[in-house]
Amino acid sequence: MATSPLASTSGTPSAPPVPDNCKDGVLGFFHTIERLKTNKRTGWVNQGMDKPESIADHMYRMAMMCLAFPELGTLDISKCVMLSIVHDMAEADVGDITPEHASGVSKETKLALEEKAMERYQGLLGHPSIPSLRIKALWDEYEERETAESKFVKDLDLFELCMQAVEYENSQGCRTLQEFFETTIPRIQHPVVKGWARDLLAERRAKWTERGWEGYKDIAFCPDEPSAAINGSAAPSTEGNKGTRLPTRVWGEHQE
Fold this sequence. Notes:
Hypothetical protein af1432, 0% strand, disordered C terminus, metal-binding, cobalt, metal ion binding, magnesium
């Protein structure tokens, strides 16, 4: 079972104790993020899943989903990959805190705990330093959800959860995961991710029929925008592919 992210003995939420080998320098940072490999995703633990996925499992597949993005020039995919592997890293200290209706922890309290964790990580990296500023800037960008890349990665966060839910239905015969779909699918906006989600739900429906499961419930997507320019997606160019190459931009400013 995952360590509870909060203790309430004094009425004030507190993060789990930080192991001694996670307290000093760059090696302490590396030991800290090892906890992302061992901290399990709370929703699956609460559902009693056998060998529930870790936080790192979730972020890794999101990063690979970024690399599978089929368009050129509409998103900075290098940035998206980095946002994916940073967006939940505060959970190495605080654990995977579920939404307020399930955990009793407010969004404000959750954010405060995660901000404190990020400040600790910056200290381990010698703040102010290039690594500490880079990682905190990426985390802030995801939390603020103002850029096309951060909005796209949030959609991947929702979609990856649905992928995992379908896989638990398939591998463990679990039929209690409808809420996971209902609280995520309607929030997906990017047309590419929405297309992947439609395919996933079609696969899910077919599996339910194949097993003879009854009670399948359809889930409505948010309306499609009239323009394809959602979360950084743009209509395909009508020009030929001559001279087109994969973008090579990465985070930050670089001299040619």
